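Complex record, three chains
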Amino acid sequence: MIRRASVALFLTIALCCPAFVSAQSAGQSGGELHFCLHGEPKTFNPLLVEDGQSEAIRYLTGGVLIRLNRQTQALEPALATSWNATPDGRTIKFHLRTGLHFSDGTPFTSEDVAYTVKALMDPQLHSPTGDSFRSGDGQVVVQTPSPDMAVVTFPSPVAGLERLFDQVAILSAHSPKKEMAVLGPFYVADYSPGSYVLLRRNSNYWKKDKEGKALPYLDSIRLDIQGNHDIEILRFRRGEIHLINSLDADLFDRLQKESPAAAHDAGPSLDSEQLWFNQVPTAALPDYKKVWFRSTEFRKAVSLAINRADLSRIVYAGHAQPAYGPISPANHFWFNSKLPAPQYDSAAALHLLARAGFRFDGSVLRDSSGNRVEFTVITSAGNKPREQMAAMIEQDLSQIGIKVNLVTLDFPSLIERITRTYDYEACLLGLVNTDLDPNSQMNVWLSSAENHQWNPKQPKPATPWEAEIDRLMQTQASATSDKKRKADWDRVQEIVAEQQPFIYLINRDAMSAISPAVIGSAPSVLDPHAFWNADVLRLGPDPALGAQR
Amino acid sequence: MIVTNNSANMLRLGLRRLLLLAGLGLAGALASATLVRFAPGYGVAERELDPRWRAESVEALRQKQALHEGLPSYYFHYLSALAHGDLGESESLKRPVRELLRQRLPVTGDSVVRGLGAAWLAAALLASLGLAYRGWFFESSTTAFNSLLLSLPSAVVAMLAVHLRTPVFCAIAVVVFPRLYSYIRNLLVRSYDQPHVLAARARGLGSGAILMRHVLPLAAPPLLALVGVSFAISFGAAIPIEALCDSPGLGQLAWQAALSRDLPLIVNVTLVVSLVMLAANSLADLAGRAFAGSVR
Amino acid sequence: MKPLQKVAASVLCAIFVLMALAAFLVPAPYARQFRDIPNAHPSAAHPLGTDALGRDSLSRLLYGTRVSLLLAPAAALLSTLIAAFLGSVAGLRGGWFERVVLAATDLSLALPWLFLLLVVRAMLPLDVSPLVSVTIAFLMMGLLGWQASVRVICAAVRGIRDSDFLLLARSSGCKPARLLLRHIAPNLRPLFYTQFLISIPLFILTEANLSILGLGVMEPMPSWGNLMRGFEDFSALSANPWRLAPLVLLVIVVMCFQLILPPQEVTQ
């Protein structure tokens, strides 16, 4: 029915507006883009966004001062025509576009910027967006010398300040519609809980295309709430939805066999999967196991014994790359290209273990006290790639005599074990990275922080290398130039490669499915992969649909 | 006079039953609340793994949830809110539970009723066909077909329904039908072999009249009991089927609630499900007794 | 026994024998990954092909049969014992006690059993061997699956409660426990046996359902439900029909169980 409606719309517009039919472009303006969200959006307030679905809606509806171009990875002016950040990272001055209005007609001025920033930095507001700016205590001061200029001053330096504004959608200070009045390409027109979210074209959107025509081209976007990935791909095949933003590797292969034009692999993404050992001193583990997990040689040996190429080839059908560090090679600027490549060498692993006092008798590995080396890996249930990787790691480690047991737990129990009770031995999980700037991972690398998964909340660093990482974190947070910060982060990546607190396994590719009916798409490795340029997407006739049937 | 006595009795019985049902439903809800409260993983949220959050924010959000109140005070708050019709707010979906239930219950109710209807129709048709053709071939082929349907795990049936694009109630019908058919068939066979039915047939009564006047009245009480039981079965089967078919009903809600340890949602869904199941069984029981009473 | 029942019984016996001889019949250990040949077609070395990780499907099927066919009866035994105890006591005492037990039975059917299973899985200690955790999983199913038999047993006990031999026993001062063990249980043994046999296919199906949902037997141990998890991809299934083997085997075994049983009341 949706397709019929959009075809009807398309025909009507084509008949009524012949001027828009250009000889070059096969697509017409208008139409409704249709795809799925994997769950319910928890909020429409852009300041409170914490889940992926709300973030997708914020991306499509929110107007930001500075936009990160997902393809070039460079910052572009959006609501701000230009900006100026002081070298100390504390103050940023924006020159704003004039003559803009929110989706309900309310005029846009620097007052709205001030209102948004103040609301974001309110200590009572708890959200990841706000927390990213909170580098220290104190008040944030926003000055609005004129309606088209805003100056924001933070109490202490914020690393990567400009990039963070890509997530701050400006709210209206005066509109009666509060957060539903937006500056982005679309606005939320209808929401049926559990069913769909309908976004309609914002006629007040500031952006125009090269010919001066108002964007977006699409009339509306319909987001169905569909949690089941298999049903989603079924609907895509039937032509009911136009794109799938993030595709699993096996579904990608299924699709590629049938309609190669629709399946897109943009290359390695920022997401990684890693394995780590529990190094918490008060954990309920036998002492000899704690000794193993704290030994660098043990961890490096385990890392050497894992065949990452096989993991990528078999579990992800080649749609993943072996990973060795916290920063993915897709992150052009911050990745340390001088790092040694991950290796697979069981003999070297055994050599390292022998140096650490372990003995291998051909089938079983024992430590210096004669205990058999055996541990349990926990991972999240229902995630097939992770379960398969764990099964493969089990076989890899059995080659060097280590026995691995696998336990899958549902997410809340898993989180409880790794953040509260520390009742686990090893954990296999993935990290979803949305930010290019590694400063957002500060809470992972600071030894006193909560997300320092292998040994969180340390009163003081337990090892010299963790102390060094702490020092580097403080330096990069207050460094004045990105080049200096990069030197610090390069050193962090070196230390992680030497010490292997996280044994990084793979960086999976950013895979998406886009119907040939969608014109102008350019899948990227940064989220949102398939619809980051939703304002310039068009819908055309789908040549492949007949074949799909 | 006998009639009014009977109806007064029925009313009293019905009222007592209702009270018992309500009490049991609440007991079930409170039991599941206790279970959730003390289960591992209660009170942890996925945001604890997100490094963008500061420790103070996570802690502040943790405090906001009513996690630290003791169980007796939770019971008290829940019951007093229930008295006002307020079922609380879902932690994972951030919407009032009442609204969620109001949305989801009709979907599940619709699938269950339609599935049951289809299953009963098919079972009745097949059983009566079996009475008409008592041949060896018919009997063994229907037994084999029935066994086949009974042996399919309901999850596989659900996956088949997704692939064939059939609505959810078909999957429910396929799961319930074989259980109904074997029972109804045995019941009818036994009824037809009763002496008074044989006598009626010997007297040359038409098969329609035999069915209406001799077989059905006696078979009615167990059949009515079966209605209640089959309702309970289909409601129970709806949960995994809806979870796999991704149908926006009560089953999927229960599944999501269980996975996310959503206390208000689990408690209220348990309340609704237990009330429905208990009511179905009780109604069937009562109806069976009433029918049996009037026949005698 | 009718000819159909004889056929069913012999098929079951054959499967049991195959299962027992699994260790000798398998081409490779069920967890061994042949990483060069994932998703292979059937061949001489791998009669049913290999799965996504290159593990031999025939070995996994035979070991999975072992898991399902050995542990489902264990769960069935546990649930029948619980149902027998509860049903007999309720039927004997009668009155309000019986009503309470039956109501509690109905109620426990409504409890979020999915949630219970999730919780029990999460509470298991991490360093148990996979076999122990699978056994515990089945025992949990047994602990949660007794409701279906209670009503039947209760009705049966109610039926013989007023019979002569029981009245005699009670009037001679027999204690209730002794009454249950010495007089009621032996008389109801055929019923218990039937309920036990009925429960086995139910637990096999329950395990299959749970494993498909991701709550059952954990990797790398195979079970029928485990092996059926990849069934969502119907196009791959139609291209590789030998992957249906676990479903076919499950259906055959459950059908045989049903054919050898006498017709019974409707169970959950």
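Note: The two ends of chain A are 16 Å apart (CA to CA).
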